[in-house]
Every structure is written in structure tokens, then in C-alpha cells.
Specification:
Helix 6 packs antiparallel against helix 7 (about 125-135). The protein has a two-stranded antiparallel sheet. It has helices spanning about 5, 10-25, 30-50, 70-85, 90-105, 110-120, 125-135, and strands at about 50-55, 60-65. It is built from 7 helices and 2 strands.
Length: about 140
């Protein structure tokens, strides 16, 4: 074990452990697909027990869990997919933001802006400015 590793505090070792665990995770698209499949399987199991839940929109009324592995469930998945995404309010903001950032990145606007910012920082604020630029660029 090197001297640098021996001097690490408990918090740094904790952060290193989180980083190692995070690096072992699959791609976010894969995680999304895995979670979607888990939801479908769990819906099948819960529906087989005949579980009812209270309707949050209409207190006092109950809703039966739908089996998403049945023919009706698979049909429901595909016919309500667009409405599900349209009804998710943050999705529009995220897509528009990602589109804008992608255009700025491909056109070179982000790198030019960061370069101009770093070159215009006064000497007494160079450390704070570089930290700010690093955070913004990531």
C-alpha cells in the first residue's frame, strides 16, 4: 500500500467505494430497460394476488393492479406509451435542454465560451474561476 493510500481518510475511502460501485453500473439505457422489465414482472406478480390500491385522484375508490404481461397489459403498454411520455412534464424541458446543449457543443460555442471566460479571469480570482469553469464544463 502506498503512502498516499494510507493517508486517505474515512470519507475519501467512502467516496472511492461509491466511485467503484458506480463504475460497475451498466449504461443508463440498460438500467432503464432492466427497471422497465422489473415493473412488468412485478405487476404480474402483484396482479395475481388480486391486490387493490386506493385511487389517489378519487379518495375512497380502489383500482386493481393490471397484469402487464397479459394480452390486455401488453396492448395497454403500447397504446399508452406516447401519452405516458407526453404527460411527464419534465421530459419536455430535459429534451429541449439536451437539444440546445448538443447544438452548442457541436458548434463549438461551449468550448469558445469557456476559453473566453478562463482568459478573462483576473489573476486574483483565477482559482475560483477555474473551479467554476471546470464545474460548468462537466
Amino acid at each position: 500500500m502506498s503512502t498516499v493510500e494510507r493517508k486517505k481518510g474515512i470519507f475519501q475511502r467512502f467516496l472511492d467505494g461509491i466511485e467503484k460501485a458506480g463504475n460497475k453500473l451498466p449504461h443508463p439505457v440498460t438500467l432503464f430497460a432492466i427497471l422497465a422489465v422489473l415493473v412488468v414482472i412485478i405487476s404480474s406478480v402483484v396482479a395475481s394476488f388480486g391486490i387493490l390500491v386506493e385511487d389517489p385522484a378519487n379518495p375512497g375508490e380502489t383500482i386493481a393492479v393490471k397484469n402487464l404481461l397479459s394480452g390486455e397489459g401488453i396492448s395497454y403498454i403500447f397504446t399508452s406509451m406516447v401519452d405516458n411520455f407526453i404527460g411527464f412534464a419534465p421530459l419536455g424541458v430535459v429534451l429541449a435542454t439536451m437539444l440546445g446543449i448538443g447544438i452548442c457543443e457541436r458548434s463549438g460555442l461551449i468550448s469558445a465560451g469557456l476559453r473566453g471566460f478562463v482568459l478573462s479571469i483576473p489573476n486574483r480570482l483565477i482559482t475560483a474561476g477555474l473551479v467554476f469553469a471546470a464545474v460548468m464544463s462537466s
